[in-house]
Design goal:
alpha/beta; Aminopeptidase; six-stranded mixed β-sheet; 27% strand
């Protein structure tokens, strides 16, 4: 009896050891792909893509219901998981798969098969020591992936199928458009830095942050609005700095669209929450809320510049901020985080530490919004 018990114990021990070893081997061989930072429209990368597109080779796409809804991308035998990078150029509706060490000749002979219905066009081109497989989509998608032996499976999905909460952060201006500029400080740079801090804070949270730009890039108001309305986010926060001919003016303002009413938590609720949180975090001054579209720019220097920029004859003009708010169909607010034309406030705005305080105020507003709108 004792001998049988010992044999049974030895058998159980062996089985447990084999299971543990299998689990260890599985995790040791885990295949990790680098998901690159999203690269948005209007950047240098987009210009480079336009040039590379002229030299690209069309990919051979084949519908295969057995693989659908995924797309199967064959991989050379010597490609390792960390040789693969996936970029989502979501404003341009393009997803790039970058494979280090591969050659375009390999993909001349290979089929990419599966659920290809959402792919408008696909091509590959050489970039340094890598091959870029560029998939031009018929809309805005996120992606899931599975890496198997010598094959990458991609599934293109609606962002709302992957994320419960979606927010767009809009860094004002960019590229050739500096926005307001005083004593070397450019509005476009400060707004981008603030947005980056907020985005980084929520990177590993349950909130998905999209940005209209992530570098010094020119993005038209029309493209920003089209992107936001296609994405249908839960919130839109646009970051700007203010200016005035009256140098004594300082403080925080938040603009909203009073003509587009959203029940429960809408534009005015967001604007009010955003101002309170930013003013508290930065120990600043609240100037109140501004209903967009209510300001006349007639006869001002700003009006002349806007006419030239927009090619309009009318004396009633929208600033970039107002154009965004009037165009988007989601709870939205524009934060004017301070006056560059006020010497004392400009000195604060020049400091990264102060910009981070503004960013923390925005983060606090987002957290409070989450709590208030929890189901």
């Amino acid at each position: 009896m004792q001998e049988r018990l010992m044999r049974y114990t030895a058998l159980i021990t062996t089985v447990l050891a084999l299971v543990s070893m299998a689990v260890m081997l599985r995790f040791a061989s885990a295949k990790t792909i680098v998901i690159a930072e999203e690269v948005t429209a209007g950047s240098g990368a987009e210009q480079e893509y336009a040039e590379k597109k002229q030299e690209s080779i069309p990919l051979h796409l084949v519908e295969n219901k057995a693989v659908s809804p995924s797309v199967c991308i064959p991989l050379p035998e010597d490609v390792r998981p960390d040789d693969i990078v996936i970029e989502n150029h979501y404003i341009e509706h393009r997803i790039n798969v970058i494979i280090a060490g591969a050659e375009t000749s390999y993909y001349k002979e290979k089929e990419i098969n599966g659920g290809i219905g959402s792919i408008r066009a696909a091509a590959c081109y050489k970039e340094s020591d890598s091959v870029v497989l560029a998939f031009q989509m018929d809309g805005l998608y996120e992606h899931k992936y599975l890496l198997e032996e010598h094959a990458l499976f991609l599934e293109f999905v609606n962002p709302h199928e992957m994320y419960d909460r979606i927010i767009v952060l809009d860094a004002g201006h960019g590229g050739a458009d500096n926005g307001r500029k005083e004593h070397g400080l450019k509005e476009k740079d400060a707004s981008l830095f603030i947005v980056e801090q907020v985005r980084n804070t929520f990177e590993d949270s349950g909130v998905r942050i999209y940005c209209t730009r992530q570098e010094d890039a020119s993005i038209s108001a029309e493209k920003r609005i089209a992107f936001i309305n296609e994405l249908r986010p839960d919130l839109v926060i646009s970051v700007h700095l203010n200016a005035s001919e009256e140098q004594s003016l300082y403080g925080t303002e938040v603009w909203y669209n009073e003509q587009y009413v959203i029940p429960v938590f809408g534009n005015v609720e967001l604007a009010d929450l955003l101002e309170r949180c930013v003013v508290r975090a930065a120990d600043g001054r609240a100037n109140g809320l501004v209903a967009c579209g209510s300001r006349m720019l007639q006869g001002s220097k700003e009006a002349t510049e806007q006419k030239q920029k927009q090619g309009k004859e009318t004396d009633v003009l929208y600033t970039e901020e107002e154009e965004l708010l009037m165009g988007v169909r989601a709870p939205a607010a524009v934060l004017e985080a301070g006056y560059l034309t006020n010497p004392r406030e400009r000195q604060l705005l020049e400091q990264e530490a102060y910009q981070k305080m503004i960013a923390e105020g925005i983060c606090d507003a987002i957290r409070q919004w989450e709590e208030q709108t929890e189901e």
